[in-house]
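Field reference: sequence -> structure
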Amino acid sequence: MDEEAKLWRRFLEGDRTVFDFLVQTYYTSLFDYSLKFTSDRNKAKDHVHDLFTTLWERRAHLSPVDHIKPYLLKSIRNNIFKEFNRSGVFQNISDYEDEIVQDESMEMRMISEESVIERQRKVNFILSQLTRRQREIIHLKFYEGLSNEQIADILFISRGAVANLLHQSLKLVKQKWELLNIALSAFLYFADYEIVISIFRNN
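Structure field:
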């Protein structure tokens, strides 16, 4: 039995120090992941709090776990979707997959920023142009460091579907990165924000 499995077993047995360790270790990842589904930071905190509370209260009924982080991410995702379904936020899953966030104010901020901050804003802006599904899979792969198999388990899709979605998402990121640089160059040359917007919208 590996270390994570042993740790989880101690948690199931009611070891409070292990529970505190799990909260300290995984709180940030769970909070960041929750923000992929809501812009309300207080709501995201509530999701994390509710998850840990439920896990502690129901630990006697939980199953053994080999990899804790993917298990927690999957659990909080399921909880969030259950709440969405109860509240009617999502009429069906396609609403979730197809939503594309457009934020022109972010475009303006991207154009006006420089250096490292500008680069980070570029990344944030480009990610904001992806569907929530695409942003989610990029987050799980590159921010949480999960394998395709672990992501497949969280999203309830096949490993092949994960690989395909990742490929499509990264290809789109690359295209938008190049397009954004072209748009910013056009802005610097023409000093016309409308030109930048038209370039981005026409591609």
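Note: Residues 91-104 have pLDDT under 50 and may be disordered.
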